Amino acid sequence: MLQIVFDALSLGSLYALGALGIALIFGVMRLVNFAHGDVIAFSIFALLWPSTDAMAIVFAGNLPWFLLIPFVLAVGAGLSVLCEIVVFRRFRNTNPATMMIASFALGFVIRYFLLMLYSSRPKSISLLPVLSQPVEILGARLPLLQLITIIVTIAILFGLVIFLRRTRFGLEMRAAAENFSMARMLGVRANRVIMGAFALSGALAGAIALIFGIQTGTADIQMGAAVMLMAFISTVIGGLGSLAGAVLAGFLLGAASVVMQVILPVDARPFRDAFVYGAVILVLLFRPQGLIAARGTKERV
Amino acid sequence: MTLLNLVDISVRYGRLTAVRGVSINLKEGEVLFITGPNGAGKSSLLRAIAGVTPTAGGHVEFDGAQITGRTPEDIARLGFSMVPEGREVFGSLTIEENLMVGAGMHSRTPGWKGQTAADLDSVYNTFPILKERRNQQAGLLSGGQQQMLVIGRALMARPRLIAIDEPSLGLAPNITDQVYERLIALQAERKLTLLIVEQSSTRAVMVGGRMILMRSGQVVLDGDARELGNSEAMQAAYFGYEDH
Q1: What is the block-wise mean pLDDT of chain B (244 residues), using blocks of 10 residues?
Q2: Cβ A171–B50 below 8 Å, yes or no?
Q3: For a tag on chain B, would you pick the N or C end, based on fewer CB atoms within 10 A?
Q4: How far is CA A263 from CA A73, A178, A267, A269, A275, in A?
Q5: What is the CATH number of domain A2-292?
């Protein structure tokens, strides 16, 4: 039983972190950033030397953890900010559909860049192997990583809440997320806020890359896409633009996946995702605005 | 001294021209009402000055500097504070947070903390209801309170000029009275320059000051609000009788 709870929480953590990365950017510029998943993949490949061999040639991956973690977060943040400066900045005043298509294209550019350097074969890597050891808690044997994933996610969420509530930059980001044009009329610098959102979102992508890389022991150029789809669904269920909603829905979706894996009859388990998406459709039918409707999109009195 | 100088401003949305060649000169400390029927281009003009809508022609000078084509945040930082139509409070932020966003542009200047605290006190003195509800979400305020909040938020930026688009929109007349009463008191106290857009000339006549009438994107009348008042010339111009 405890095992199920932890499985649900750790899967939910991944989705929640991914959803948060998308919701942050959507909040400030109404962009649904489909390149986010490829930023995740890029962050993990940045640890390897470019080569098309099946064997990974580890480069930065050998760093001790206290350097490895900041390195991956910085790679994610850096690439994300670069995407903003080089691509998204030019699309800022276009409609959301145009921006979304641009993000699709950019995602493919990043993915094929990785394909060129590393080939499409998944590479096995072993990062921080100590984390794969099991620990025993209340009679359940859990991989240490699972525990750390949950703790790290909760720490990130707390940190983000404090950042958004207690700092001037956080205040400006919240104001901009709700009404970007009004925030600018009050002197809030658009470029700074948007770049800050991209940096945060990219760092979150780096965190996901690390967790995912350690969990699966592979680096795969497709890996971002898998998390990304669930993360995107989480942001929609949570209410596009609502950070709290994105996190909540991420955890719910993780829980739904794990619970269905357990309660579905054995024959139906291979079709688990169909049931999960079915539940998604049901939620959206009853709450099309998402679980927590974002303020900026809500009618004001 | 001229604070705001508009020279031959035009604003277009695609093939539609909203403002055609408007020139207005506004002196420091002056109160100017821009009135006119729906679709006269008043809001478009204001948004163009604030840098929110691009101009199709002409240029804007603020305090002697060219601000045409500059970003809204740059223009705000020069001391032009815009209160757009529909109030636009940050509904999920608390009242105090809303005010702090307004003060943010000065966060790099020395002594900012003390000055902001003093400004906050002064806004709370002007609008005591805001102090009472300072930790509540701004979205929960009534329309009149929201109007007071956005005026307070604009004041937190220590502006030279406040431009307000239809402050009476959706407010009961007695609430509008309160809003105007305090606005005018503030103006006198701080030597503020005010640029107020209203559909009807009633307020302008009550408050006094200069009044400009716009119709079809152009300035048709410019003079003392009380003298123009509800004169026949004013009514004819407002409704465009001379066209028929």
Answers
A1: 94 93 95 92 95 94 94 95 91 94 91 92 93 94 93 94 92 90 90 93 89 93 86 78 52
A2: no
A3: C
A4: 37, 40, 11, 9, 11
A5: 1.10.3470
